[in-house]
Amino acid sequence: MLLTGTVVADAETVVDDGGVVVEGDRITAVGERADLAEAYPDHEHREFGIVAPGLVGGHVHSVQSLGRGIADDTELLDWLFESVLPMEAALDADGMAVAAQLGYLECLESGTTTVIDHLSVNHAERAIAAAGETGIRARLGKVLMDQRSPAALEEDATAALAESERLIERYHGAYDDRIRYAVTPRFAVSCTEECLRGARHLADRHDGVRIHTHASENRGEIETVEEDTGMRNLHWLDEVGLTGEDVVLAHCVWTDESERELLAETGTHVTHCPSSNMKLASGIAPIRDYVDRGINVALGNDGPPCNNTLDAFTEMRQASLLGKVDDLDPTALPATTVFEMATRNGARAAGFEKVGKLREGWKADVVGIDTDLTRATPIHDVCSHLVYAAHGDDVAFTMVDGRVRYDRGDFPHVDADAVRERAREHAAAIDGAPSQA
Ligand SMILES: [Zn+2]
Fold first, then answer.
1. Locate the Aminodeoxyfutalosine deaminase/Imidazolonepropionase-like composite domain: which residues (predicted)?
2. Rounded to the nearest whole angstrom, what is the distance from the C-alpha of residue 92 to the centroid of ligand 1?
3. Domain ranges, residue 366
4. Pairing state of beta strands 137-141 and 179-185?
5. What's the gap in Å between 378 CA and the centre of ligand 1?
6. What's the CA-to-centroid distance between 237 and ligand 1, angstroms?
7. In which element (H, E) is residue 28 found?
8. Which of 350, 371, 388 is the last residue of a domain?
9. Ligand 1 mean position, distance from CA 410 (Å)
10. Do 48 and 75 reside in the same domain of the chain?
11. I need a surface site. Which of 133, 356, 394, 405 has the fewest CB within 10 A?
12. Cβ of 17: how many Cβ atoms within 10 Å?
């Protein structure tokens, strides 16, 4: 296939009248349209305003998709324990599968081709299969919770880690290696030391498995960890093995100098979730400082109950604007930096090689974006347009691993109407569920 338009190969590399050639699961050429059209006359040709790398959702909760709007305007720990965890506990296996499908379809239709996904305790297998079947690229795992959790979600650490290992053996590297596993403790508050250390040991036993957890999102959270352990949260996580180049920490809003040094020294990845942090009034993560220290920062939408959208374009815009407000400096977090976070940095955090840029030999995760729109007229700077003006709705075409997964309203491999209908049915059932699970 030959995809043509203004090609944004990465934040710094734009071909104004360009093209991308895809063969199998790979990009085989990136260059000038005229040259590629002449060299590949028999390839199916698709034309878009902009051709860009698929975006990477560095921290999402697909399985919370049925909870959009259930807990707006609520404090984080109340939001979590009184609304979101009871919803997760109330989902049966089919509900979990439908919620995940819905989340992945929303990602694909708005240009996200890879996610780092924090699933739930129960029925994670159904969500993993949903990721495989919808065609998204995903780093994901079953959530671990073995203290301070609703009864329906709290598990014995040994049993939960054994179930995680079974999922690793079955799914890590499945679906043409689009699916890779992350051992996923919810956060230090809801996990014992045994559970957290066990997560590290489990990841170490399986090549390429990563660790993904929430960290230092909220002041109440870090106070609780300090009461439990006598340590700052990130030092506690480091103590039990949850830092390093195979670890992705969502949020990191409340960190002191020593914790920031720790993130940089250990090569730990951070996923910034500005919309979630603003909506839950968690605070402003010190992202410019992280970037200056060389910490790899990805972007994430977090879950539909705290955002309430999985549109990664809005997240890019919010990240840049919030960074400027934080420093009272309009030069902070420019469009190119934020676009890099939402593409290659996210893929690095997710642990996928040759993903996140349009390059010969790299994976064919590509989006086509419409520019025949009032808000896209004129475009003086295409990266600026993508970060500050474009919407997920502008995405016309999404390809993952060389396969077309979304094409102008259609999902070629999924009956999206049926998914939405079943999602409405399951959401209605949640509305009728008891508030305590
Ligand atoms: Zn989260």
1. 18-42
2. 21
3. 2-54+357-407
4. parallel
5. 36
6. 17
7. strand 26-32
8. 350
9. 29
10. no
11. 133
12. 11
- How many Å apart are CA 60 and CA 82, to the nearest integer? 20
pTM over 0.85: yes
**Does 145 lie in the same domain as 35?**
no
Question: How many angstroms does the Cα of residue 390 sit away from the middle of ligand 1?
Answer: 25
The DSSP annotation for 246-306 comes to TEEEEE--S--HHHHHHHHHHT-EEEE-HHHHHHTT-----HHHHHHTT--EEE--B-GGG
User: Ligand 1 center to residue 343 CA distance, Å?
Assistant: 19
Any idea what the CATH number is for the domain that residue 33 is in?
2.30.40.10
**Are both 66 and 114 inside the same structural domain?**
yes
Q: Express each pLDDT in 263-300 by its tens digit.
A: 999 999 999 999 999 999 999 999 999 999 999 999 99
Residues 99/430, Cβ–Cβ less than 8 Å? no
Give distance in angstroms: CA of 184 to centre of ligand 1.
11
Report the CATH number that the domain containing residue 176 is assigned in CATH: 3.20.20.140
Tokens of 256: 């002191």
> Cα separation of 180 and 159, whole Å?
21
Assess whether 46 and 89 both reside in one domain. Answer: no
Burial class (CB in 10 A: 0-12, 13-18, 19+), 69: exposed
